[in-house]
From TrEMBL:
Native species: Eremomyces bilateralis CBS 781.70
Cross-referenced InterPro entries: MCP_dom_sf, MCP_transmembrane, Mito_Cit/Oxoglu_Carrier
Placement of Solcar repeats on the sequence: 11-93, 108-192, 209-293
Designated name of the protein: Mitochondrial carrier
Lineage: Eukaryota, Fungi, Dikarya, Ascomycota, Pezizomycotina
UniProt keyword annotation of DNA-binding present: no
Length: 306
């Protein structure tokens, strides 16, 4: 490693395409139904899993589980995937080059990548997805239901950029801890699998082994669910006269705890674990596989090696 000359890899279209493609696949398959379920549970904390499913189904049948997919989840996925995968790979490479272990390198890459995409793209996307999922439908009373972009412009006119990016600090905290945990714990799991199977550090894991490591990393990363519940509460359109008018991360946490106790801060953790497993399989396991495939096709590395 000491003899290698550090060369910063240029930003390539293939870097961005791999990340965006993986995230679009993730959100359009299992991602959005799990996102809708966990957001519904976090916003309506008296609902259990069954109650959330009934609520979602009652709002739109099977299409209710894809509420907020177009355009917000697609915008988020296409931009988030590109930013996250590229920035995380670069940060992990430099951390490893500086002498960090695979665990520390993985955490560093995940945290830097998560922070970058939180402020670059996720603030307004998560806000609008949550608004779509939690707003009260006017159709039941015979009134016209505002469209997606009409809702967006209504928030912008009333609250400006801050309204569109409501809860962005909670999003940033969530993403830093999310992807720091996912990448770091996935690398720990990979090392454990290598020890168990007798593989050397230089040997690549098989696809099933990568999937297992990623699933473990994704599932265990749900420890920060209280931040996710706080984020949903800050962005939610669920009406409650007792809720403080201007929520911060701190006041939202106090409000949730006062209303629902410690259990309320972990509402929606089950679909969150499932979502974490699926996202991490897509972005870590399939991400590594996709990068290797593109490298074989082009002859050039897709991102800096780690």
């Amino acid at each position: 490693m000491a003899d290698e000359k550090l060369v910063k890899q240029p930003v390539k279209f293939s870097n961005l395409l791999v990340g965006a493609g993986l995230n679009m696949f993730e959100v359009t398959t299992l991602g959005q139904p799990l996102e809708v379920t966990k957001t519904t549970m976090a916003a309506n904390r008296s609902d259990g899993f069954g109650g959330a499913i009934s609520r979602i189904w009652g709002r739109g049948g099977p299409l209710g589980f894809y509420q907020g997919l177009i355009p917000w989840a697609w915008i988020e996925a296409s931009t988030k995937g590109a930013v996250l995968l590229f920035v995380a790979s670069e940060a992990e490479f430099y951390a490893r080059y500086a002498g960090a272990s695979p665990f520390v390198g993985g955490i560093t890459g995940g945290m830097v990548g998560g922070l970058a995409q939180a402020y670059a793209t996720m603030g307004f996307c998560t806000c609008m997805k949550t608004v779509e999922i939690t707003k009260i439908k006017a159709a039941s009373s015979g009134a016209r239901v505002p469209g997606t972009f009409e809702t967006f412009m209504g928030i912008y006119r009333a609250e400006g950029i801050r309204g569109i990016n409501k809860g962005v600090n909670a999003v940033a905290i969530r993403q830093v801890t999310n992807w720091g945990s996912r990448f770091g714990l996935s690398r720990v799991a990979e090392d454990g699998i290598r020890s168990f199977t007798g593989k050397k550090a230089s040997e690549k894991l098989s696809v099933p082994e990568k999937v297992l490591a990623s699933a473990l990393g994704g599932g265990l990363s749900a420890w920060n669910q209280p931040i996710e519940v706080i984020r949903v509460e800050m962005q939610s359109k669920t009406e409650d006269a007792n809720r403080p008018k201007k929520l911060t991360v701190g006041t939202a946490a106090k409000y949730i705890y006062s209303q629902n106790g410690l259990k309320g801060l972990y509402r929606g953790v089950s679909p969150r674990i499932a979502l974490g497993v699926w996202q991490t399989i897509c972005m870590v396991a399939l991400g590594d596989v996709a990068k290797d495939a593109v490298e074989k096709l082009t002859g050039d590395p897709v991102t800096a090696k780690h």
